[in-house]
Amino acid sequence: MSSRPVSRPFSGTIADRIARSMPDLTPSLKRMAEYVLAHSFRAATMSIDELAAATKVSVATANRFAHVLGFSGYQGFRAELVRGFEAVLAPVERMRDELTRKATSAEVMAASLSDALANLESIRQGLPADTCEHVVTAILDARQVLVAGFGDSGYLAGMLAHGLELYCPQARSLAGVGGPSHGARALFRLTPRDLVVVISFPRYVKDSIIIARKAKERGARIVALTDSPTSPLAALGDLRLFLMATSRFAATSNSTLLAVIEALCAAVARRAKNSVKSAADVTEFVLPWLTQEDRIA
């Protein structure tokens, strides 16, 4: 009698299916099962060839593993494995799709720029006028403006704080060398007169959501810069700007978000009192650090 494992039509999670099949698995299939259980996220990113290579089995064996777990083929197995990781894996899948197409470096660069242009045009056409006015007013009326963002958004938070500091009594980024816990210390003295701008896009960083929640508990107003009403940040925002920032080559198009940040700073500068004088004063102050060509009188 053959000891070859037989495909079963049972359902359940990948872990459930593996647990039920484990007693009947051959050594090579058991090796695959153990790898998938220990590295489920990594396995979810792999093609059948990549998973076969990682577990030192043939592609045919990898396909048989999917059948043993009750799937019609590897694609069905991988689709189930991806379930729950969709948002996190979306950038990986987009990049995988792009890498199947032949393209020159110039074409790839052009495609990335096209993504940013499409995002910005969508944002430009859909800017909610009332919300934009309320956000600018909230920034200018605040006793202090704190900007929170971590991961890639930490750099964007720094740019926004830098752009606002000319026009606000106090504007600073909570992203720094001390990490989120150090930034959180600034929340302890928040009042309802303060504003916290939180930037969070897929993949959402948990620290940004915690900061927003704690700031709200202290009574500060929250401006949420995020991608959609389903974002975990959306429900915490008193004011929300939903910004399309998709990219074929990364989790988020940071160039899109930077352009929006510059646009927001421009709107604040337009409404701020003495904005020209502030800009002139700062320029005069930093003049010794600016390189100028020698001029002959």
Q: How would you describe this structure to a colleague?
A:
The protein contains 14 helices and five strands. The protein has 297 residues and is of the alpha/beta class. It has two domains: 14-84, Arc Repressor Mutant, subunit A (Orthogonal Bundle), CATH 1.10.10; 113-287, 3-Layer(aba) Sandwich (Rossmann fold). It has a five-stranded parallel beta sheet, sandwiched between helices. Helix 12 links the parallel strand 3 and strand 4. Helix 10 runs parallel beside helix 13. The N and C termini lie far apart (102 Å).
Give a quick set of tags describing it.
2 domains; disordered N terminus; Arc Repressor Mutant, subunit A; 297 residues; 5 strands; elongated; 5-stranded parallel beta sheet
Task: Describe how the helices and strands are arranged.
Layout: H1 14-21, H2 27-38, H3 40-44, H4 48-54, H5 59-68, H6 74-82, H7 86-99, H8 105-126, H9 129-141, E1 145-148, H10 152-164, E2 171-173, H11 179-184, E3 195-199, H12 206-217, E4 221-226, E5 239-242, H13 254-271, H14 275-286
Parallel strand pairs: 1-2, 1-3, 3-4, 4-5
